[in-house]
Every structure is written in C-alpha cells, then in structure tokens.
C-alpha cells in the first residue's frame, strides 16, 4: 500500500499546527487529522490568555526587570523538583533546552512571524519560598497581543499556505482509534469518520460514526493534547500527594480533551511517564455563560485578596493569591473541603482581577487599544462586572454581616462564623495602618507595588478591607478547575517517542501536552506559567523539523 503522505499529524491544536508549518517549509506532504470540526482548529490555545514565558525580553528590560538564563533555569529547576530516575534524562534536558529557547531566539522568532506582546509583563507563580524553591524570581508572563487567537494565527496562516500549495490535507471529523506497524515501523493510522457537525467551537460535537479510514505515512506526529476534559481519567491518575481527588471539578477545557490518544500510542509500544503529574487551578469559577459542559474560568488574581478556607480561616503562608498553585491545591484537598473563598472589596477586584481566556478579554483579543484604555479606566472591567452580577460563585454586599449570610447561604453549610471572620479581617486591617508589619501577605502586597507593572495595573494600594469607601465587600467561592497534564509520552530531544527500553519507537514523534510539553514532563511537578503555549510551540517545532529530516 502506497503512502498517502510523508507525515500524518494527529491533532490540529497549536503543537500540531506548528509541526505542520515546519513540515511545509521543508516541502513535505502532510495529512492533519482531528476529531473536531474545522472551526475548532487551534485547539485549546484558541481559548487561552496567550501568556508566554520569555527571559530577558525587551518588555522586561523596559520595565527594569533584570532577568537571565541562569536565573530562569534556577527558577525552573526549583519549581520542577525533578526527583525521579526518568527525570534525570529527557525531562531535565528538555527543561534546559526550553529555557535556552526562551532566553534566546523564541521572542525574535515569534516576532518575525507577526506576533506582538503587551508591554506590561505579568508576575505569575511568585513562590514565596527560598531562592532555590518554587516560583518566578521576576515577572516573565508576556501576554500576546490578540491572546490565544493571536498565538495560533501565524501558524495557521503558514499551514493554510501549505494547503494552497497542495502539501497539506486537513481531515476533520476523523477520530483515530489505532496505530499499526509495517516491518516494525509505525506507519498506519486508522479510525472512525464522524458525521459532519456545525457545532460551535468548544461545544460538544456529534459522535455518530459514518465510516472508517486508514492512512499510511513514513512518520506520525502525535499532538492530541491532554486529559483535562476527561474527569474520570483525571481522578484515576490523581496523585496521592495531593490528597483525595475532588468530587466536584469544573472543566477548563472541552470534553473532547480526553487523553485517549495517549493509550492508543502506548498500545504500539510508547512509554507514558509521569502520568500522576498534573496542573489544575484552585481559583475556578462557574462560567455564567458557558460554552462547554461544566465550563469554568480561572481568576488570575493580584496578591491582595484574603484567601480563606471553607471555614473562613486564612490559608497558611505563602499560599497567597498567585503564589503557588499546586501547594494551594494540596492544602485544599487535605482540608476536608473542596472549595475556598476570596474575600475582597470593589477597589481590589477592579484592579487585581483578570479572567483567563480569550473570550474573557475582548480588548486584548480584539487588539483594541481603546478597549485596553477603557479597561484601565473602569472601576471594574466589563467581563469581571458580568461575573459580579451573574456569577453563581459571587456574593456582593455592603457590610460584613450580610456578606457572611450570603456566603453561608451559597454553600448551604453554614461554616463561616461572622465573629471569627471579622477578627481575621480586623487584624489584617490593623497591619495596613502601620508602615511595619508581621503579616507576610501585607509585605508581599507592598513588595509587589515596587514593580511598576504591578503598581500600574495589577496591585491595588494597600487599604483596609472594612473601609466603606473601598466597598462593597465581595466574596468569591473558588472551585478546582481541571487544566493540564504535566506528564506524557517520553520523547528525546528530537521529539521521537521512546519505548520502555529507552529506544525510539520507529516512525512516531510527539509534541505539546501529549508529550508532557517535551520529554514526557518538562515541567516536573509545577509550572512557572506562560510555559504551556511555549511548550507546544517549541516541541511542535522540534517534532516537525525532525520528522521532515527523517522522511525520504
């Protein structure tokens, strides 16, 4: 049977598009398979905030942020916590290579394809431990002008040019169910053809099967994504170190992000490592205007909100908003309750709340300078105000007594004691009135405002929460929100998928979340943020270039 193309790419998300674009540049013919309709091209990257991790960028230097490859690698390794035999080889090598990319050609390469970046650099995952521990020592979160769609666009453009040249064929509504070998080389991809669907991007599409397909190629690149939409699989792989898996989870991704392709690739000999490493957010809120089932949105918080457990007790140091996602998740899942609270006021929410997702940031997504200026001038940005008015997890009241009643009514558990919460807030407010403090969160807020970017748009001036002039008071119930797999198919630095014996699985490459963003787990246990889209780009580029060289 003759080959149908030089390479088959499974998954039309960001990593798949990047790999295909590189194959097109090399003159290779490609079939791109995806189970979803064409309007879902770009996958989860489309829905993202567009954050990218750069090191020593022009944006950083303009804001007087001193960064370096050495500091970034120190932060990466301290965050990853590599401690397994399999970590010492490919995941660590991928981490070093990725930091080199982020400190080297990454920004210039993307800029050369037309991507532009918001001038204020965000400071995600601040850590709060020692210099060799988890977190970013400096701000590194660069928002793409155009958010997620702005990240996808240059690669989709390059692939569409390949279609026009006759090099690329898209096969949407093609669901892969098996890989097969010829003479020991994986060269055959087969599966089911699903009926055409007019489903809106992100919504559930039909699973009615209308036919079957089989394609052959010299190489296969798996870029099928992770498991975040498959809650059963998330729970099955939930690590013991994070406590009991939550009974209730919101979904940060649609249901078709099901992880099934990982098992299909394993069935032909691939090694899947670090499957218990995952990245889920603790600041999830139910989308009042959902696109997919159990659709949750993540709050990207500044550092000022008071973070309370289900009983109204402050979370321990340094589990402040925006400091340590996985540390917070572990604490919550051992607390006996699956939700927490932010307590804040309108002055804080207006300046410090951003919502993750391209659709929640129409000004940045639409590349509207006027919209960005309007956001900065508003008391509360429009998308955030919509959640205040309509969100199931929001309680907005003029005084603390009413706020506590609303919090207890929302959960139906009556766990919040008004006197206890008032003592917590009053004690915190006393610290605000003094230029000295022992409250490490107050220190963190004051420290954040020494950075111009935080002072301008991300951190409110310290003030008393019970100051009526700063009100109304707001409580936000926070849920666990599924998002990323950090483990995946083990790959070498050429993105070749490896077997349990450590040898390349002939004909198979992997990139993006399916490969743990490189090596089967480039992040280790934790992420510095801004590294998921970049990981798709870097590993997708690597896979595309390597496969292009390998095929005859």
UniProtKB/TrEMBL annotation:
Name of the protein described by the UniProt record: FAD-binding dehydrogenase
Organism domain of life: Bacteria
Pfam families found in the cross-reference section: FAD_binding_2
Record PANTHER family: 3-KETOSTEROID-DELTA-1-DEHYDROGENASE, KSDD-LIKE STEROID DEHYDROGENASE RV0785
UniProt domain FAD-dependent oxidoreductase 2 FAD-binding: residue ranges: 6-533
GO molecular-function terms, A-Z: oxidoreductase activity, acting on the CH-CH group of donors
InterPro entries linked to this entry: FAD-dep_OxRdtase_2_FAD-bd (IPR003953), FAD/NAD-bd_sf (IPR036188), KsdD_DH (IPR014614)
Keywords attached to this entry: Flavoprotein, Oxidoreductase
């Amino acid at each position: 049977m003759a080959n149908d193309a030089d390479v088959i790419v499974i998954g039309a998300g960001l990593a798949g598009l990047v790999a295909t674009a590189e194959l097109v540049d090399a003159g290779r013919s490609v079939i791109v398979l995806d189970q979803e309709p064409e309007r879902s091209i770009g996958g989860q990257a489309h829905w993202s905030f567009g954050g990218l991790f750069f090191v020593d960028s022009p944006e950083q230097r303009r804001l007087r942020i001193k960064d370096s490859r050495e500091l970034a690698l120190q932060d990466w390794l301290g965050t990853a916590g590599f401690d397994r035999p399999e970590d010492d080889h490919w995941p660590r090598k991928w981490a070093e290579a990725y930091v080199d990319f982020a400190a080297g050609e990454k920004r210039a390469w993307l800029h050369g394809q037309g991507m532009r970046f918001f001038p204020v650099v965000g400071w995600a995952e601040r850590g709060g431990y020692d210099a060799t521990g988890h977190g970013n020592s400096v701000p590194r979160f660069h928002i793409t002008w155009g958010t997620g769609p702005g990240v996808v666009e240059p690669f989709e453009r390059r692939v569409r040019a390949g279609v026009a040249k006759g090099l690329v064929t898209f096969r949407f509504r093609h669901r892969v169910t098996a890989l097969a070998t010829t003479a020991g080389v994986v060269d055959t991809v087969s599966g089911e053809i699903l009926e055409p669907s007019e489903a809106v991007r992100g919504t559930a599409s039909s699973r009615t099967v209308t036919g079957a397909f089989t394609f052959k190629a010299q190489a296969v690149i798996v870029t099928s994504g992770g498991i975040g939409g498959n809650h059963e699989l998330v729970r099955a792989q939930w690590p013991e170190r994070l406590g009991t898996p939550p009974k209730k989870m919101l979904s940060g991704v649609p249901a078709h992000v099901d992880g099934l392709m990982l098992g299909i690739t394993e069935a032909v000999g691939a090694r899947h490592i670090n499957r218990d490493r995952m990245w889920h957010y603790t600041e999830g809120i139910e989308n009042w205007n959902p696109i997919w089932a159990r659709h949750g949105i993540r709050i990207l918080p500044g550092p000022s909100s008071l973070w309370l457990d289900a009983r109204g007790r402050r979370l321990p140091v340094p589990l402040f908003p925006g400091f340590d996602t996985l540390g917070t998740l572990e604490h919550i899942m051992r607390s006996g309750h699956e939700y927490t609270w932010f307590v804040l006021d309108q002055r804080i929410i207006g300046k410090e709340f951003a919502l993750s997702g391209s659709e929640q940031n129409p000004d940045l997504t639409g590349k509207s300078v006027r919209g960005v200026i309007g956001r900065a001038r508003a008391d509360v940005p429009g998308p955030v105000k919509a959640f205040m008015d309509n969100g199931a997890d929001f309680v907005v009241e003029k005084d603390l007594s009413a706020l506590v009643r609303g919090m207890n009514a929302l959960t139906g558990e009556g766990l919040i004691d008004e006197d206890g919460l008032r003592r917590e807030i009053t004690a915190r407010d006393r610290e605000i009135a003094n230029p000295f403090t022992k409250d490490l969160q107050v220190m963190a807020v004051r420290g954040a405002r020494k950075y111009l970017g935080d002072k301008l748009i991300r951190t409110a001036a310290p003030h008393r929460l019970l100051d009526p002039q700063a009100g109304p008071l707001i409580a936000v119930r926070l849920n666990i929100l599924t998002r990323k797999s950090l483990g995946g198919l083990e790959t070498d630095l050429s993105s070749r998928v490896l077997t349990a014996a450590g040898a390349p699985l002939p004909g198979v490459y992997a990139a993006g979340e399916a490969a743990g963003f490189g090596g089967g787990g480039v992040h280790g246990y934790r992420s510095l943020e801004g590294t998921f889209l970049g990981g798709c780009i870097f590993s997708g580029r690597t896979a595309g270039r390597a496969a292009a060289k390998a095929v005859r």
